[in-house]
Write a structure and sequence with these properties.
The structure holds two protein chains of two kinds.
Chain A: E1 2-13, E2 17-29, E3 34-38, H1 45-52, E4 60-65, E5 68-69, H2 74-80, E6 81-85, H3 96-106, H4 111-125, H5 140-152, E7 158-162, H6 170-185, E8 189-194, H7 197-203, E9 206-211, E10 214-219, H8 221-228, H9 233-240, H10 243-252
Helix pairs in contact in A: 3-4, 3-5, 8-9
Chain B: H1 3-18, H2 21-55, E1 59-64, H3 69-77, E2 82-84, H4 90-95, E3 101-105, H5 109-115, E4 122-125, H6 130-157, H7 178-186, H8 189-216, H9 218-223, H10 229-267, H11 274-283, H12 293-320, H13 324-331, H14 334-346, H15 362-372, H16 378-403, H17 406-409
Parallel strand pairs in B: 1-2, 1-3
Antiparallel strand pairs in B: 3-4
Classes of the chains: A alpha/beta, B mainly alpha.
């Protein structure tokens, strides 16, 4: 369960002054559902997810993840969260097994529990062949599988995905999408950010459209289609953010 | 703070660093092999150059002295000088280093000497040039001897005792133990090397563990773990400190071992007879300065808080950088900041006082010099150790603070 209440995050920038990256955003994600955060580049998706994963501290509002407050108990929040982003890389000089073991230990697991968990994950993700090779020699697919195993080692209740398919080939991207669906089927709370409309249509139970740091529209896919009178997800998105001109202006910044 | 987590982070960073070639070079290979080779190599070359210069018989010219044939003939017979025919451009030849020195014998020198007093003899040289200096000291010795002989002859003529002009003799003798002599000779260079190695040993791990991780994207992965940030910093910091200390200890050990090997080679003595061996070696003209092991232990102890200071400062600076390259451009100029006080400490004549004892790095350099020559000023030692600890604590606190700043960790 994720609950965000009036979440706000501002940054100071030397050139542009104070920037509000996330502006009064509230939403709820329930277990066994995928909440899709849809937005253009720079709309505030990554900042929102980093606030939920406690990598950043909110400037205003509050949020609870798996029952813990992100500001007061960030360590407990992180213990319940698996965070996977295009920007979360692997240690190139460690093997896949060492990488997963390290994060198991950081999560306070015993060595016996980690060994058992790696055996389980390696079978499920078909990693046996490269488990003891160093990550810097991996293909993107192998890297993604190792990253997934890293996020799952402590079996978190909440999964946060920040544009996980960014820059991946079709096969690997499809594998990720099916993995996200698998997380939902196991009853995990999933939040998924993307700017790819087809992924939203395929995956998400509820969609939040974020634009300029604000949540401009929210609902299930049929609800949004009805509200904006469009069948195509891309048209729904453009209408929600206030037309092409508004989108172009936001992207310019 | 959770010790188990700090240790987990430390162990992983240790494994990771031991697989990184750049860090291995600066932490292990360079201090173990290159530094002693450099120290002894340069020392050997310098000694070689000096002894070669001594072997050469310096060419000198005699200017004037046509009416003093006895002095000129005696100069020509001096085996340590090579008198070459006088040329008109003798000054130019000295400047061009073709001739090492020239001596001007004034007109009527021998006659004047017989009569009572003669005009002064002038030696022309190339100031600061080693070989010219040797020529000058030979010439000076020659004329000093001539003066002494003249005095002795005059005293004999008048039947006066030699003690009339030389009522007593002056001698000097060394009473310091050989390792203390070594302390003075090596006292300057050893702390200097230790300071530099402490710094460079910390440099590469610090950059790799901070800016390197940001650049490779693993920092964000690590921050996703439930471990508190203070534990992450301390685990990483311990690794940087390990780099710093291992560079220092390895270089000291390998330098000590090579000094011992050299001592045995030169003196033929065993480990226990090292001091005696050094004395023999000194007598044989190849002085092998010894280091007092207790002083060396003291040095290692004094360096500990400074290693913490270096590690924490480099860590903080490198953490601010976005990439390894950016970190290098911040950290590399810091080497000069470190070298300056270390070099000042090497200069002879600068001694510890209460104010200098508070200047970081310089205080270390000075106190190490004292410890290696067997001087233990306990009040300064306590003051320096204490102030170093305070600086180190401040730097470490700053490192932890920086790690908690979003605009530093997620600087874009």
């Amino acid at each position: 369960m994720i609950e965000a209440h009036h979440l706000t995050k501002t940054f100071k920038d030397k050139k542009r002054g104070v920037i509000t990256a996330v502006d009064d955003v509230s939403f709820t994600c329930r277990p066994g559902q995928i909440y899709g955060l849809l937005g253009a580049n720079g709309a505030g998706k990554t900042t929102t997810l980093r606030l939920l994963a406690t990598l950043l501290k909110p400037s205003g509002g509050h949020a609870t993840v798996a029952g813990y407050d992100v500001e007061r108990e960030p360590e407990k929040v992180r213990a319940q969260v698996g965070f996977l982003a295009a920007s979360t890389a692997l240690y190139g000089r460690l093997t896949a097994r060492e990488m997963i073991t390290y994060f198991g230990r950081l999560n306070g697991m015993t060595d016996a529990a980690i060994t058992a968990r790696i055996r389980h994950l390696a079978t499920e993700l078909d990693m046996a062949e490269f488990l003891d090779r160093r990550c810097d020699k991996f293909s993107t697919g192998m890297k993604q599988k190792t990253s997934i195993a890293r996020t799952l080692v402590h079996d978190p209740a909440v999964m946060i995905f920040d544009e996980p398919t960014l820059g991946l080939d079709v096969m690997t991207a499809r594998a990720i999408v099916s993995f996200v669906r698998e997380c939902r089927n196991r009853g995990k709370t999933v939040i998924y950010s993307t700017h790819i409309m087809s992924e939203v249509a395929k995956l998400c139970d509820t969609v939040g459209i974020i634009h300029g740091g604000r949540l401009v529209a929210e609902g299930t896919l049929p609800e949004l289609r009805t509200r904006f009178g469009e069948q195509d997800m891309e048209e729904v998105f453009v209408k929600a953010v206030g037309g092409e001109a508004a989108l172009a202006a936001a992207l310019k910044n | 703070m959770n010790l188990h987590n700090i240790f987990t982070v430390y162990l992983k960073e240790l494994k990771d660093t031991l697989r990184d070639r750049r860090s291995l070079m600066s932490m292990i290979i360079i201090p173990t092999f290159v530094m002693p080779a450099l120290t002894f190599g340069v020392g050997k070359i310098a000694a070689g150059v000096v002894s070669k210069a001594r072997e050469e018989t310096p060419a000198v010219m005699i200017v004037g002295g046509d009416d003093s044939p006895g002095v000129a003939a005696a100069l020509r017979q001096d085996k340590k000088l090579k008198v070459v025919p006088t040329a008109a451009d003798w000054k130019q030849q000295i400047s061009d280093k073709k001739v090492r020195a020239a001596v001007l014998i004034p007109a009527g020198f021998e006659a004047g000497l017989k009569a009572g007093a003669a005009d002064p003899v002038v030696i022309y040289n190339y100031d600061g040039e080693l070989k010219s200096g040797f020529a000058v000291s030979e010439l000076e010795k020659f004329f000093r001897d001539l003066r002494d002989q003249t005095v002795t002859a005059r005293l004999a003529e008048r039947a006066l005792p030699a003690t009339l002009v030389k009522p007593f003799d002056l001698r000097r003798e060394n009473v310091a133990a050989p390792e203390k002599v070594g302390g003075n000779l090596l006292g300057g260079i050893v702390p200097y090397l230790i300071i530099i190695l402490c710094f460079t040993g910390a440099m590469y791990p610090a950059m790799d563990l901070t800016a390197g991780e940001k650049e490779r994207g693993t920092m964000e992965t690590l921050l996703c773990s439930p471990v508190a940030r203070v534990d992450l910093v301390l685990g990483k910091f311990l690794m940087v400190l390990t780099g710093s200390l291992s560079a220092m200890l390895l270089s000291l050990t390998s330098m000590g071992l090579s000094a011992m090997a050299a001592g045995m080679m030169f003196g033929g003595g065993g480990g226990a007879k090292l001091a005696a061996a050094a004395m023999q070696a000194k007598a044989a003209g190849t002085a092998m300065p010894m280091i007092d092991p207790v002083g060396l232990l003291g040095v290692v102890g004094m360096v500990l808080p400074v290693a913490v200071l270096f590690s924490a400062v480099i860590f903080t600076v490198a953490l601010f950088a976005k990439s390894y390259k950016e970190a290098q451009s911040y950290v590399a100029p810091m080497v000069f900041l470190i070298i300056m006080p270390a070099v000042v400490g090497m200069l002879p004549g600068i001694d510890l006082n209460a104010r200098l004892a508070l200047v970081p790095i310089l205080n270390l350099s000075l106190v190490c010099k004292e410890m290696l020559s067997g001087i233990w000023h306990w009040n300064y030692i306590v003051l320096i150790f204490g102030s170093s600890c305070v600086y180190a604590a401040v730097a470490l606190t700053l490192a932890v603070k920086m790690f908690n700043r979003e605009d530093v960790i997620f600087r874009a």
